[in-house]
Design brief:
The complex is a heterodimer of chains A (91) and B (148). With 91 residues, chain A is α+β, with helices and mostly antiparallel strands. Helix content of chain A is 16%, strand content 23%. Chain B starts with a strand and ends with a strand. The chains are: A alpha+beta (91), B alpha/beta (148). β6 (88-89) of chain A pairs antiparallel with β4 of chain B.
Amino acid sequence: MPQIQIPSPLRQYSGKQASVNVPAKTVGEALAGLVSQHPDLKRHLYTEDGKLRAFVNVYVNDEDMRYLQKEATVLKDGDTISIVPSIAGGC
Amino acid sequence: MLKLSQSDYLSLRQHGEETYPHECCGVLLGRFDDNGAESVSKSVSRIARCGNTRADSPHNRYQIDPRELIRIQREGRERGEDIVGFYHSHPDHPAQWSPTDLAEAHWFGCSYVITSVDKGVATITNSFELTGTDEADKKFVHEKTEVV
């Protein structure tokens, strides 16, 4: 069962859990399962029209899902999905 | 409040001097201390230097590669550490958050430490906590930095 790592700013919406196990065959199913279990996460991950927010990076192990098959990326046993909000800025 | 050791404080400032005239960036690892209703302070146990992926504009922009962050996060988790914030420098610019800093900040509850590096010398270091509940109401609040 894939494990989803929840970043610290979102743990207040995941019952304070740092990781959540969700039965899923694809990344899309895993994220859908996550927001189904924890509905308050949805608005922080998705825009109102259902798209993943641009600053939300989703990695399958060390690969950005955007460069795999996006939400259709097939998961294997032991895969870890990491939700990583962007870190950037500047003067 | 952000608590960090003298060693980590000096190290993050020195990082900015080394990368001058470009912005440096890094991660603060440690723990969140829940002080009850008053506040949640953060104690830094380690800092992790990162590369600045904004090679197109490193003198006034920084970005941390998410893969680097995932590695740092995983290694931190093995030591019982969490990501409690980030640091970066402002070359020849005040140690104050900019509109770009706020627009690009998404780690609510974490500290964003900014050091001004004037002509290659670190001067002021300030820390700001990202408060709010979502993108619509987020703001930076200056917080006390305790160097121990």
